[in-house]
Amino acid sequence: MTKLAKYAKPYIGSLILCVLLLFGQAMCDLNLPNLMSDIVNVGIQQSGIEDALPKAVSRNGLDFLKVFLTSGEKQEIDSIYKLVETGSAEASQYEGDYPLVKENDIYVLDSEDTEAVGKASSAYGKGTMTFLNFMKKMAKEQGAPMEDAASQNDNLEDVDFDQLYEALPMLQQMPESAFDESRKAAAGTDESILSQMGVSMTKLFYGELGVDTGVIQSRYILMTGLNMLLITLAGALATILVSLIATRVGAGIARSLRHDVFAKVESFSLAEFDRYSTASLITRTTNDITQMQLLVIMGIRMICYAPIMGAGGIVMAVRSSPSMTWIIALGVAILIGMILVVFAIAMPKFKIIQKLVDKLNLVTRENLSGMMVIRAFGTQKFEENRFDKANQDLTGTNLFVNRVMVFLMPSMMFMMNAISLVIVWVGAHQIEQATMQVGDMMAFMQYAMQIIMSFLMIAMMFIMVPRAAVSGDRIAEVLATEPTVTDDQKPLTFGGRPKGEVEFRDVSFRYQNAESDVLENITFTAKPGQTTAFIGSTGSGKSTLINLIPRFYDPTKGQILIDGKDIRRISQHELRDYIGYVPQKGVLFSGDIASNLRYGDREATDEELRTAAGIAQATDFIEATEGGFHNDISQGGSNVSGGQKQRLSIARALVKKAPIYIFDDSFSALDFKTDAALRKALKKQTGDSTVLIVAQRVSTIMNAEQIVVLDEGKIVGIGAHKELMKSCKTYQEIAQSQLSKEELE
Q1: Fewer CB near the last or first residue (10 Å), C or N of the chain?
Q2: Is the pLDDT of residue 150 over 50?
Q3: Residue 562 has pLDDT above 90, yes or no
C-alpha cells in the first residue's frame, strides 16, 4: 500500500491543513473538561470566586487573620494591600463595589507583582487553615465531641465575625507558640485544600463588605458556559472543515487511481488479460479503489486525530489528578491487548474476502453474459447453486470477521463503564480525604473517556487498514505490471501511409507458461491488392497468427514486417492506425449506429458511413430501423442479431480506409447470399489494400489469391485454391467436407 503514497503528494498542503485543524479540534475537546471542572469547583463550590486572595477585606478582618500568620507571612500580606479609610476621597471610588467602606476602613489589593501576589495568596490560605485548626483545638479543649468540633470548624459559613472580633484583643495577646501546632498542621495541608479554604474565607469577607456573591457566581458560570459554547462551536467548525477537506482528498486520490488503473489496463496486451480475469480487474478498479478512498477519508479524521486526542488526554489527566493515572494505564493496556488479539484473528480473512468478491463478480458476470446459453440448456438451478456457493462463501467470511469486530464495541463499552466506576470509587475516597475536588474527579473521568474513545478510533482503523492494505496491494499489482508488448524507446515510423505488404519471417509463438509453441516457423508474404486467407482445423493457430499483426501479442521468435519494417520498432498507435480490424466476435458499444461506425474514423462524414454500410451489406437493416444511423445500440449490441453485429463491425473497419484489413472469421454469422455479396463489394473497396481473412468456410476464401493452410501451428500448404486442391491433403479434406465436387471446380 505504501507504493500508492505518491498519489497523496498533490494534496500535501491539504493534509497539513487537516492536521492543524485536528490539533485545533483536539485542543477544543481537551479544554472542555477543564471548563466543566471550573464550573463545579469555582462556580458552584466557590460561588464564582476564582482567587483565594480577596480583592478587598475589612480592616478588622485582615487584622484578625494576621493573628494566625507568622511575621514573614504578615509582611507578604501587607506588601500587596493598601488601607482605604472611611470618609477619605479615595473611599468614594469603592463605595459602589464595597458598601462597608462607608462605615469602616478596608484594605484593597494594590499590587501587579505576580510573584508577590502568589506568595501572599499561599500565606492567606495557610492563615485560614491555621485559624480553622486553632478553633478545632480550642473546641476539643472545651470538651466538644470530635464530630461537632470538625463540623463546626470546617464549615466557615457559620462563623460569626462579631464574636471573632470581640475575641481579637485576647488573641493578639496570646504568645506565638500557642499557634505553632495549628500552623504546622496547616503547612502540611495540600495546596488545593488551602486554596479552597481561602476562597471560603474570602466569600465571608466579601459578604461582610456588602458584596453580592450571588452575582459573582452567576456571572462566572455564565461566562464560563459561554466560553465552553464558543470552544464547542470552534471544534465543530474544525470537524466540518476536516471532513470536507478529507472527502475532497479521498475523492481526488480515488479519481487519480481509477484513471491510472484504467490507463494501465488499456495498455495491457492480451497476455496481461490472460493473467488477470475481467472480473478481477473490474473489482480492483471499483471496489478496491473505493476501499482506499474510504481509508483516506476516515484515516485523515481518525488516524491523525486519535493519537493527538489520546496523548493530549493522558497529559491533561495526569495534570488533573496524578494519583489516579494508574487507572488509565491499566485500561489502555487491556484495550491494546484486546485490539492485538482481534487484529491477529481478522487480518488473514481480509485477503480472502477480496478474492471472494472477485469470484462473486466472475460468477455474476458469466451468468449475465451467458444467460441465453443457461436458459437453452436449462441449467438455471445449477447456476443458482453456483452463485449461492460464491455468495455463501463471501457472506460466511464477512460474518466471521464482523463477529470478531463486533466483540470490540461491547468490550470497549464495558471498559469505559468499568473505568468510570473505578474513578468514582477512588475519587470519592480522595474527595473524602480532602485531596481532590469534585470537579477534578469529573474532569478526570471525561479525560479517561476521551482516551478510551481514542483507542476505540484506533481499533476501528485496525478494522479498515488491513482490508484497505489488501486492496492497495491489489491496485499496486496492476499498476506495477509491465505490459509484454511495449513501444521501442526510439520507434521507427512508416513516414506516411504504408503500402501494406505484410511479411512473416520464421515466426514462432508460445503463450506464457505454455509447454509448447502454438505457432512454429511461420513464413509467408501478404501483398497489397491481394487477399490472403487462413484456414485450418480448430486450434490450428489461425486467430493467434492474425493477432500478432496488430501486436496484441509479440512473437517469441522471428520477425513480422510491414513494408520491410519490423512492427516491433513501430509504435503501437501508428501501427494500429493503419489496420482495419474485425474481431472474431463482433463487439459494439452503447450509443447509436453512427457512433459505432465512427470508431473507425472520428471525422468520417455521413456519406462515408453510408458507403461503408453498403459494402458491409448493412444498409437494408439500418434503414429499416426507426432511427436509421441514429438508432440506439444497447450495451454489447444486445439489441441486434449476430449477423447484423458482424456486418456493423465490418462497416466500422471499412470506414477507416486502412492499407491493411484483418477479418478474423468475421463472416461466420452471415448467410451464403450475404457472404457472397459482401465479398464482391469488399473486393472493389479494398482493391489496393492487403486483406487477411481467417475463415472456416472454404466458399468464403476460394477466390483468395493466397491461402495459408495451418495444422497444429504449422504451415502445411500455401497457394491458390486450385493449387492446394492438388498439393495439400489437409486443404482437400476441409474442402471436400464442406462442398460438393461440382462446387469445388
Answers
A1: C
A2: no
A3: yes
